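re: the backbone from monday

yeah here it is again, tokenized this time
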């Protein structure tokens, strides 16, 4: 071929150029560079469908979460928004250790900064959560741990804001359109801010269960009319069951067979007060739940197959009821006990002794009442948590959701403000909430809380307090970052701080039996993070270096350490500043064991 006959890239037609730049190997950065070379490529690259396809290729999680009716006109601009947010979010996260090291929670100035990013675009919350998830799930579990720690905390706040908007939209719907299934998924999202849960994912899982039931029906009753119609969509409102008594009984048998005998779904009597029993995604995974969560799944499957079941907030045991065709009566179904069916009279006989037997107990519950019952269940779970921090965090989250569903319940609104005040968080929300409550009536307690929070907000500045270095003492044998083992209780832990002598109050010293120790309070005590999620304060004589150091599964490890290198944790900058003389001691101890 003569040189003059050679075809260059720009000799190709626009349609072929567009196909080339649409290939997955061509990145967003490549498109930017290509657009800068000449007018022709810039015009081809400006095609909106190309940028829509790039979001689908490179941001699949974002693509899955964007609503089908998103109405985005300028996809290139959306990519630019995402890229700018990526820069801003990384900058924010990397700044938080310095700003928050001496705080237990995110501060109001940080919340304001996060909220500004969230409000930068319609779909900014989706983009931000995706960016944060990439920071956390970078494939290096024990590296960059401090950034991951703060990324998770920012994610929790952004996620809660998104969930709040979802619930506000859901509550505003007519009651007939408030699906228990969708509400249960929103609740699972609310209580699992770091999990990747979507309505689409969960409805697809339930669709699959309904399809399995149809296949069982096809085997047992190939002429059943339910086989000739598509599944009823979750959002379609059923006003009555579609089938006769006989045909519905055939469906019930197939549903029970799939749920309880093939999938092995069961009531979790052995671990009843486990949070996972109330979260629909966890119940669908573990196949274990409590009456209310199992009932919602049962009702959702039945809905798809054309059977209308109604929720009944029966005391101590949630059940469902089914209107018997052509008869003015109901049958009651117990999802916790393998779909057992009872009459109303049989159900009332099972009331606990001393309960009032009344037909009002069998009335249909509205969706909001069901969700409030689920939240109260979770509040009970929170009160049974072993660690106070876990208890308060879960109880706070449950109270926040309850306050959304019951905005006119003053007691719930006041309880939420008290929880915020106890946890020393959301002072701006406390101030706004106190003003709102005081318009409803005077309260000395609320007025005092308002005055204190206004004072705190005025004094709260986004300026890191200087870290005071702890001088090293000869009697301190161990160092921060070392993985230790308790000689008596055998738990493993990592040291994140120490005191030359015990600094706890006398009542704690008495309660913990410190005076039974050989050196009592006159020895170093170490702040440690324990594998079970607790913080403990351990005497030096009770600790020894763990013979087989393993990573400590504690949510706060990243607050103090940036990396686990196989034998010990490497402190982050702030912890290193607090204990500047610990590194040589730690290295010498590791070296004597051949670990360094």
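seq for it, each position gets an aa:
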């Amino acid at each position: 071929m003569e040189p003059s006959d050679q075809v260059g890239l720009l000799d190709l037609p626009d349609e072929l150029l567009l196909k080339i730049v649409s290939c997955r190997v061509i990145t967003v950065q490549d498109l930017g560079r290509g657009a800068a070379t000449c007018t022709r490529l810039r015009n081809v690259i400006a095609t909106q469908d190309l940028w829509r396809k790039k979001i689908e290729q490179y941001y699949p999680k974002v693509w899955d979460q964007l609503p089908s009716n998103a109405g985005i006109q300028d996809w290139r601009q959306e990519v630019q928004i995402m890229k700018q947010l990526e820069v801003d979010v990384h900058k924010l996260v990397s700044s938080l250790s310095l700003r928050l090291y001496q705080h237990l929670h995110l501060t109001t100035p940080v919340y304001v900064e996060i909220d500004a990013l969230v409000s930068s675009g319609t779909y900014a919350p989706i983009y931000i959560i995706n960016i944060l998830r990439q920071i956390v799930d970078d494939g290096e579990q024990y590296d960059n741990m401090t950034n991951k720690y703060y990324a998770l905390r920012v994610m929790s706040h952004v996620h809660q804001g998104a969930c709040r908007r979802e619930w506000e939209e859901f509550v505003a719907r007519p009651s007939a359109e408030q699906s228990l299934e969708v509400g249960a998924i929103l609740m699972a999202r609310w209580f699992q801010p770091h999990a990747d849960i979507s309505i689409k994912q969960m409805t697809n899982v339930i669709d699959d269960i309904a399809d399995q039931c149809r296949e069982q029906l096809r085997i047992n009753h190939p002429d059943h009319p339910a086989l000739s119609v598509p599944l009823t969509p979750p959002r379609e409102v059923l006003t009555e069951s579609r089938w006769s008594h006989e045909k519905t009984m055939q469906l019930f048998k197939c549903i029970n067979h799939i749920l309880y005998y093939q999938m092995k779904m069961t009531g979790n009597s052995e671990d009843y007060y486990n949070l996972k029993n109330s979260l629909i995604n966890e119940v669908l995974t573990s196949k274990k739940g409590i009456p209310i969560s199992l009932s919602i799944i049962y009702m959702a499957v039945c809905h798809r197959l054309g059977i209308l079941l109604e929720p009944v907030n029966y005391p101590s045991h949630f059940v469902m009821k089914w209107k018997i065709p052509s008869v003015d009566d109901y049958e009651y179904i117990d999802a916790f006990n393998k779909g057992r069916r009872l009459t109303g009279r049989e159900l009332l006989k099972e009331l606990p002794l001393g309960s009032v037997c009344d037909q009002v107990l069998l009335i249909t519950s509205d969706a909001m009442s069901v969700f409030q019952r689920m939240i109260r269940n979770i509040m009970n779970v929170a009160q049974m948590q072993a660690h106070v921090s876990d208890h308060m965090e879960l109880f706070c989250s449950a109270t926040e959701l309850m306050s959304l569903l019951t905005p006119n319940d003053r007691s719930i609104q006041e309880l939420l403000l008290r929880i915020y005040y106890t946890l020393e968080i959301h002072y701006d929300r406390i101030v706004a909430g106190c003003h709102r409550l005081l318009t409803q009536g005077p309260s000395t307690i609320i007025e005092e809380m308002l005055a204190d929070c206004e004072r705190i907000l005025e004094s709260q500045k986004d300026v890191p307090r200087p870290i005071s270095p702890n001088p090293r003492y000869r009697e301190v044998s161990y160092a921060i970052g070392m993985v230790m083992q308790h000689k008596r209780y055998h738990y493993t832990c990592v040291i994140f701080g120490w005191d030359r002598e015990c600094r706890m109050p006398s009542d704690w010293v008495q309660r913990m039996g410190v005076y039974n120790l050989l050196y009592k309070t006159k020895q170093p005590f170490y702040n440690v993070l324990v594998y079970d999620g607790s913080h403990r304060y351990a005497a030096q004589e009770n600790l020894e270096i763990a013979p087989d150091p393993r990573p400590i599964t504690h949510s706060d490890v990243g607050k103090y350490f940036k990396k686990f290198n196989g034998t010990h944790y490497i402190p982050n900058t702030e912890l290193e500043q607090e204990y500047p003389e610990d590194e040589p001691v730690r290295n010498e101890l590791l070296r004597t064991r051949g670990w360094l």
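The CA atoms of residues 325 and 420 lie 51 Å apart. The longest strand covers residues 492-499.
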